[in-house]
Amino acid sequence: MTTPPAGTPATPNGAAGGSGINAVSGLPRLRAGELQNQVLAVLALTGVAMDVSDIAGILVGRSSGAIGQACDRIAERGHAELLPGSPKQYRITSAGLAEHRAHPTPIPPALQSAAGRPAPAARPAAPAPRPASSNSPAASTLPPAKSTTRAPKKPTTGPVRRPNGQLYHPRLLAKRPDVDVLRDLRAADVPVLLYGPPGTGKTSLIEAAFGTDLYTVPGDGDTTVGDIVGDYVPTDSGGYEFVPGPLPRAMEAGGVLFIDDATLIQPKVLAVVYPAMDGRRQIILKAAAGRVVTASPGFYIVAGHNPGVHGAVLTEALSSRFSTQVKVSSDYNLAAALGVESRMVRAARNLATQYDSGEIGWAPQLRELLAFKRITDVLGVDTAIANLIGLAPVEDREVVHKAVCQAFGLAKILPLALGNQL
């Protein structure tokens, strides 16, 4: 049985605060509006501009989503001010300070930051509006603030170079360049799941958006917890040392963790990531003597999902943690602009329509089309056609063969194969 924190009023049923204990967090359930009062208390006690992750670092165990909603509610009442810029920052107003003084809400010790972690350092923020009277007691206690009005970012207008040197050509997402949208979602700490067939450019988009700030977990059915958090490796001296994995390295560096093919990883293995995504923003490295790793500002998680791949399972636990999910399909206009034979682009569009309707399980995507162009440049279009036919899975090859033959006006195409001995 969970014991309520010291000082928590008990009810006849033994429930803390009259609402019981949350079975997941082990913390008292809150009455309506109680989390808003706790958020207001944090803003009043720190006296600085804070974002949701800052507040969640103090109200440990409360979800970032709930804290974000509480911030919005007190801002609507005029008790906090939403500052310009990203991520969203909130600062208490004179009205909010007066409300807190009139109805003070203590922050229970069980909710305060673990291990005596200090409250977030004061950060510059836009000036708070002054009340009508400069003699207002509440106004005189507000700390002076500096302006941090940020210059608007210039939108991406052309290709973006990936870390491997290749160019990525941005596409529209929410009426804006996709790389800009992903960067803004990172600043707001809104996790993104990209889904679509292999070869449509999910990884290319992630690399273009986040560059060298990226730490990747290649997912498959054999991925282990050690592949994500780290494991012991042999040393030259004959011993072993713990080497952190991509998750703790991304957390400590404030980088981006990309979980590629996340739905191929066993759910019980992938669950090791979840504490880093919620209000805790922490993981415990059990293999490294229980070392606690706390996410630095800027840490962010994105994932890729290939729905048609055998063994890919998008669990409810995983889906619910990615509040933005973006479908990624091949850009056939880009394929044509990059010089892919127009007849092959037409055949690919036809096959993609059948793929989307569920008639076939494979269609050539941008990756295959660009490979088609490179082979055409080296060995000629006939060889490139034969190679593409051979790429199609056996169960879909007849349909692919028919579509390509129609596009090129051919009777029959054999997959690329070795011939007689010279």
Please explain how this structure is put together.
The protein is an alpha/beta fold. The chain contains 17 helices and 16 strands. Strands 9-12-15-8-16 form a 5-stranded parallel beta sheet.
Kindly summarize this structure in a few lines:
By secondary structure, the chain is an alpha/beta fold.
List descriptors.
three-stranded antiparallel sheet, 14% strand, alpha/beta, five-stranded parallel sheet
Structural category: alpha/beta
Q: In percent terms, what proportion of residues is strand?
A: 5-15%
Identify the overall geometry. elongated
Helix content: 25-40%
Terminus-to-terminus distance: 80 Å
Radius of gyration: 27 Å
Describe the strand arrangement of the main beta sheet, using strand numbers.
9-12-15-8-16
Number of strands: 16
Profile the largest sheet.
5 strands, parallel
Average pLDDT taken over every residue: 82
In DSSP terms, counting alpha (H) and pi (I) runs of 4 or more, how many helices? 17
Uncertain spans: 1-19, 113-151
Describe the protein's topology:
Blueprint: H1 34-46, E1 50-51, H2 52-58, H3 64-76, E2 80-83, E3 89-92, H4 94-102, H5 137-141, E4 160-161, E5 167-168, E6 172-173, E7 176-177, H6 178-187, E8 192-195, H7 202-210, E9 214-218, H8 225-229, E10 230-234, E11 240-244, H9 246-253, E12 256-260, H10 267-270, H11 274-277, E13 282-285, E14 291-294, E15 300-305, H12 316-321, E16 324-327, H13 332-337, H14 342-356, H15 366-379, H16 381-391, H17 397-408
Parallel strand pairs: 8-15, 8-16, 9-12, 12-15
Antiparallel strand pairs: 1-3, 2-3, 4-5, 6-7, 10-11, 13-14
Helix pairs in contact: 1-3, 2-3, 6-7, 14-17, 15-16, 16-17
